[in-house]
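Dear colleague,

Thank you for sharing your sequence with our group. We've completed the structure prediction you requested, and as agreed, I am returning the results in plain text so they can be pasted directly into your records. Please verify that the sequence below matches your submission; if there's any discrepancy, let me know and we will rerun it promptly.
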Amino acid sequence: MVQVTEQPPGAGTRVLLSGNEAIARGAYEAGVRVAAGYPGTPATEVIEALARYPEVWVQWSTNEKVAVEVVIGASFAGARALAAMKHVGLNVAADPLLTFCYMPTNGGTVIVSADDPGMHSSQNEQDNRQYGRMARTPVLMPSDSAEARDFTRAAFDLSERFATPVILRSTTRLSHGRSPVTLGPRQEGPKPLRFERRPPDFVMLPAHARRRHPVVEERLDALRAYAEDCPLNRVEWRSTDLGFITGGVAYQYVKEAFPDASVLKLGLAYPIPRELIRRFAAGVRQLFVVEEGDPFWEELILAQGTGVLGQGVAGPQVFPRIGELSVGTVRHAAAHFLHRTVTTSTVAAIPAGSPPPPPTTPEPTSGAAPSPAPEPVGSAAELPGRPPVLCAGCPHRGVFYVLAKYHLITTGDIGCYTLGAAPPFHSIDTCTCMGSSIGHALGLEKALGPDFSRRAVAVIGDSTFVHSGITPLIDMVYNRGTGTVIILDNGTTAMTGHQGHPASGWDARHQPAPRLDLEALCRACGVNDVGVVDAYDLKAVEKAVKAALARPEPSVIIARRACVLLPGAAAPPIRFLPEKCIDCTACFRIGCPALEKDTGRGGKRPRLNEGLCTGCLMCVQLCKPGALVPPEEA
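Please find the predicted structure tokens below.
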């Protein structure tokens, strides 16, 4: 056996790898194309080891959230992608993860979470199996380096089979411990790399997300069925006097402490195989669950009505709830319990298959008669459909008109501008969470090459940019991306009702406040090409976008106009001169609700709704015959 050094040995070589190095090797062999992470013990070496493989784009990101957004972008392109972080890093990355689980992964995506029981270098002991349960995503837990390699490869396959991100959970001893691994060859991912426009899958507008949530629940049911026969789970029958349910590095402790006991090893940590657990429990006289971290399995197993002893969720506490386990800890704790005369009354009181208690009706809190039930309201189905649209005069409208005109792929963000995904523009192709658009753009570029960025842009609002767009912009510069970012600066947090933010120049009391200089900030992030355009000037926007796309370096366009709903932002309505209209319908391309279709003219001629028109003049710029004109020219 040899140590892995700067040059990884070839396939077939038996080497001694740490768990982190084995995860990196497994990802390499699985054909991973893009990997991103933020350094944090005990996960740091995953990215460092992957950096030895030139076939993989590897980067340190500005934080874990950006890393996950980058690999999501790569996954959109069909590339297998991996993000690595320590356990608390997943808190930072939870925003994209918990929405990405609603989106069908295209390229297999693995999130490596290295937990730190015992807090050797961390501020808490959180158990990230909980994130898997919350996100409805599978969690795999290898127990040595060979499994770390194998499980990583399996995680990519599982991700693509069930169209879900997969969490690979390591813990400190696995990440840093070493054991032998026989290296395998690299196999390229099975999917061709290209970006397909799939807004219902890749843009999590409420309407799309509502449609996806049932799919997520159905997928979880399918994963539960898969868990029953999952090859990552296995039963090792030995003495039936003593049985353990365990996994991860705790499996090694159990094996060494009680070599004659029967073991159910859970490689698929979530969801758990309920029937397999029931059968195993029925086959042993005394059943323990040994797990590092939370009583995660213990709670799930007890909830299904199977008695088990562990950290004392519903019975005597056998194993510690705090800190790292070891062979000695497991041996001493279990042996100590077995030598005591302890009846497991609490656990035994939960027989398998017991029905839940009937629901109780709350008693009235006073003698007053209960309030009558409210009158039923009409069904929403009786109401006419009113899809959300950008406001009349919204300054974002001109930008989306230009993006649609050139059929540009657009990675989007959370805000009013997400409505750019709606007709008539259809100009948002991805949207996960606030700040995600720039990371998605970079991930797509790293998967598909810099030419992709010549036909794609990322859009983000001014408030959202300050919220979480600065870090991915730095990431794009640091990692030599060449994308174009458009900051839609309307001077406020518009969607939630015009709240201030650091770049607005006013505070929560609507008092003047120091104003963040977005142009200077973008330059300070390392962007050389920073420009400001009037968002109402369609030609200026078009010229700026075309110039930015042609530059082989990051560009930022700040499309600036105040939100039309802010006081003083609206102008008098335009005028419509029907005698000049030629029914060309060009004015409808801007999609303004103030231009209604005149059904009497076959829908080819506008009818101006002066109550809605804000005088932005964008439609005037599209009207070549001069039928739409500023009020002073009428």
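Summary note from our side: The chain has 20 helices and 23 strands.

Kind regards,
the structure core
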